[in-house]
Amino acid sequence: MIKEVVKDIYTFPVTLPNNLLKALNVYVVKGENRIVVFDTGFNAEASKEDLLNGLKALDVSIEEVEVILTHLHSDHVGLVNLFAGAGCKIYAGEVDGQLINEMVTREYWDSLEALIPLYGMEEDELITDENPGYKHRLERTIDYIELEIGEYFAVGDYCFEILDLSGHTPGHLGFYDKDKKILLSADTILDPITPNITFWGFEYPDILNTYIETLYSLKDLEIDLALATHRKIIANPHGRIDELILHHDERLQEILDAMDFGKKYTVREISTNISWRIRADNWDEFPRAQKWFAAGETMAHLHHLANTNCVKMDMGEGSLKFTKLEEEIVPFNKESDESVKSL
Predict the structure, then answer these.
(1) Domains of the chain from N-terminus onward
(2) What 3-state class would DSSP assign to 327?
(3) pLDDT, tens only, 74-86
(4) Coil, helix or strand for 65?
(5) Confidence of residue 334 (pLDDT cuts 50, 70, 90)
(6) Beta sheet of 158-164, edge-to-edge order
(7) What are the counts of helices (DSSP H) followed by strands (DSSP E) for the chain?
(8) Per-residue confidence at 342, pLDDT binned at 50, 70, 90?
(9) Is the Cβ–Cβ distance between 210 and 253 less than 8 Å?
(10) For residue 249, how many other CB atoms are within 10 A of its CB?
């Protein structure tokens, strides 16, 4: 169960009950003067049991650790109240830290429900109470120490630069040790699954492009090992980054190919006509929570296609409508990234 990935960095799985992700890879970095836990798991009994057993196997008590929250998702922050209640130091980034506390409230989740008619998904009868992020959120707000991009966080022999890895969430953080060429990438680089890139609102100009820019920034770093928080630890990070960029190129083209010229589409209509790696024969058989994730990812891609003038987005009353303008996408590369930034 417990694995020492490299000297003084340990990992163990924390069960994510009734979730396609299956488990969270919790990382524990042990130094002489501090022990740091990265992320926590859902606020659920199965997650709590695995987390406590993992720490016990490492001969670590809750009271003696510090906790870093890499990003806002409930599978990463749901159990943080355990540590806050024990008086532990909790760290989070500026953007996601604020959102973590907002997600405790029902008002935050009600604001997400406002996207349902925008996507044209009223008939899917999505229910907030079924969303795993809502069901397994932390119980109460936390006081946290804000981590700043570009500063360093030292633990034992490791000195991690705090990186802005925005994209998977608006304020996702990464932790990079340049000398040891190790990146704690959390959900930014995953293998064999791909990180969910969803629409967070128009206040985030093009979250898919933000994510791709993040991947390109990581290609400029020397990284031998990426410590992902789901599935595999990644021994060829640059190769996997290339695969993720290609995946989104192909996804964008698939969306365009699913559209006919001269016809207007809702997010839902496009979501039902593209492929998904899920055990369901058709859209009607999707679990409702998965419909929500699928629509959000479709919207993030459509928003990028609108920003690159491949589709037209109509923002009238009711549902957003998208019309195809081009036959082929603008592929992701450094030149196209720069052109998108100027929009």
Answers:
(1) 3-243 (3.60.15.10), 254-328 (1.10.10)
(2) coil
(3) 999 999 999 999 9
(4) strand
(5) low
(6) 152-155, 158-164, 173-177, 182-186, 225-228
(7) 12, 15
(8) very low
(9) no
(10) 16
> What residue has token string 């932390």?
138
How, if at all, do strands 90-93 and 65-68 pair?
parallel
Residue 318: CB atoms within 10 A of its CB come to: 12
Report whether 281 contacts 301 (CB < 8 A).
no
What gap in Å lies between CA 214 and CA 267, rounded to an integer? 25
Residues 6+ apart with CB under 8 A from 153: 36, 68, 91, 147, 159, 160, 162, 175
Q: How far is CA 220 from CA 118, 167, 213, in A?
A: 38, 17, 11
Tens of pLDDT along 222-240?
999 999 999 999 999 999 9
The H-or-E segment that residue 186 falls in is: strand 182-186
Nearest CA among 43, 41, 53 for reference residue 14: 41
Exposure string for 271-295, b = 16+ CB within 10 A, e = fewer: bbeeebeeeeeebeebeebebbbbb
Query: Are 90 and 82 in contact, with CB atoms under 8 Å apart?
Result: no
pTM of this structure = 0.95
Within a 10 A sphere around the Cβ of 327, how many other Cβ atoms? 10
Is residue 175 within 8 Å of residue 223, measured between CB atoms? no
Long-range Cβ pairs for the range 125-129 (8 Å, 24+): 125/288, 126/288, 126/291, 126/292, 127/288
Report how far residue 235's alpha carbon sits from residue 233's, in angstroms, rounded to the nearest whole number: 7
CB 55 within 8 A of CB 27: no
Residues 6+ apart with CB under 8 A from 40: 14, 24, 26, 47, 51, 67, 69, 76, 77, 78, 79, 80, 82, 83
Rg (CA), the chain: 20
- For residue 111, count other CB atoms closer than 10 A to its CB: 12
Given the structure tokens 């925008």, which residue do they identify?
A: 118
